[in-house]
Amino acid sequence: MTRQLGAFQICFWVVATIQGLTVFVPAASLGVSVFCWWPVIALLFLLPYLAILCELGTTWPSAQGIHYWVTLAFGSRWGARFSWYYWLNLPAWYPSTFLVCSGVLAELFYPELPLWGHVTVAIVLSWVSVWLVNCDRDLTRVLNTVGMLTRLMIVVTLIVGGIYHAVTQGMANPVNLETLSPQLDNAIMYLPTLVFSVIGAELIANLIFRVGNPRHDLPIGLFGGMLFLLFLHAGGTFAVLSAVPRDQLGLVSGLVQTFRIICGSSFVGQLLTCLLGLATVVTFVCYMSLWALGGSEAAAAGAENGEMPGLFARRNLHTWQPAGAVFQTGLWSTLLLIIYGFMADTADDLFWSIFAFSMVLYFSTYYFIFAVFLRLRRTQADTFRPFRVPGAFAAWLSVLSASTVLGLSIFLFIFPDIFTLEIDWWHSLPILLGVALAVGLLEYYVRSQPIGKQDDNRL
To answer: Which residues touch 8 (CB under 8 Å, ≥6 apart)?
Structure first.
């Protein structure tokens, strides 16, 4: 394939793929101190994470991306484990995103919508997304374009409106030395969302073979894209904090709360609020449909290689889309919404429980990347690396720093009140049981199947 991606294209790809609207409200829930937490996350996690990706990507470019690196380092059975972990977070991430959509619609049209109303809306939107993924592939380009345009419109509106509101009416949350200082209070539970807001760059691994000058363009594109991404996230979070007091912010309704305050209560303002809210729902549906397509294609490829059950390999005979895998995504997201719906009291609780569960699984996949990095440093030390993390000490320090941040994030997702010396088992136990069940079923399948041809005894 023609190598055509440069630093600018990589930068644009990073912003287009990773930038999401879901992080603004949870990040704002940390208060003004979020602007001091972000540099800490960037230094301790983002910098080493991107450096590791650059070394692996420039040294072993492959259309199979991380799956190829894991298989190269540890064998095909570990490649199968990675495929499973990476797919499993999708059916959980799906419903948490669509719960935000239900919150937006409820805030616009029916603020008193009960919990099971939110569940119903999220289920309907999940299956709308499943239907979109199964449509003709030309629709994918339309979804990408529409999603990008609506997202750009919303982010620009938020940033401009937030600055205008702060200048003309002041900040809804006071900014001073005390509020800027990082605090270990109840809001610390939202700190892992800052890590979530900067991960996803590993998806570029599937396209590195198309980069003309990986040694030069990949680091510049990744670091430049992430720097611009941090600016967008900070701008969106600032807009929320400028408009809505932290103690009045709703996790699933926070965006509409912000739109409503920024746009005002006039007829035009109410119309703009409604249009921005509907644009948010469209953005989320397009965004999640594209992620579902990518995750389902990977699951279908894994099934074709014998790494996942054959039903994941089924395709739509008319469009050749991964119908089997995306159907499983819709089915399991529906079951998850119903199960967790019985355990939650409010839509905010339901959103955070499912989101936390999905992130525990998602964050776990990054330990595969870090383990591969160290493994290949030892087993293929003589392989030329166009980009290299300098020295063994820096390599180990990068892995230790990023792994520690991930581990603390996973711990906070499961035990969000731990710094107040409390454990809410109604929140923690369902996540622990869900993760244990998912990992148990995964291990049973992987160990019971004759997967791949490569020797798996490399540990």
So the answer is: 221
The alpha carbon of 153 is separated from its chain's Cα centroid by a whole number of angstroms, namely 21
pLDDT in tens, 374-417: 999 999 989 999 899 998 999 999 999 999 999 999 999 999 88
pTM (2 d.p.): 0.85
What is the C-alpha separation between 340 and 358, in angstroms, rounded?
A: 12
Which residue type occupies 454? Answer: Q
DSSP characters over 211-270: BS-HHHHHHHHHHHHHHHHHHHHHHHHHHHHHHS-GGG--TTTHHHHHHHHHH-SSHHHH
CB 398 within 8 A of CB 45: no
Q: Distance between CA 91 and CA 299 in Å, rounded?
A: 12
How many Cβ atoms sit within 10 Å of the Cβ of residue 150? Answer: 22
- pLDDT, tens digit (0-9, with 9 covering 90-100), for 415-428: 988 777 788 888 88
DSSP letters spanning 435-447: HHHHHHHHHHHHH
Which amino acid, residue 124?
V
5 DSSP assignment: B
List b or e across 435-457, with b for residues whose CB sees 16 or more CB atoms inside 10 angstroms. Answer: beebbeebeebbeeeebbeeebe
Q: How far apart are CA 41 and CA 2, in angstroms?
A: 36
CA–CA separation, 182 and 143 (whole Å): 39
Distance CA 288, CA 281 (A): 11
Q: Which residue has the tokens 């900067």?
A: 198
What 3-state DSSP class applies to 457?
coil
CB 327 within 8 A of CB 116: no
Q: Contact 98/122 with Cβ under 8 angstroms?
A: yes
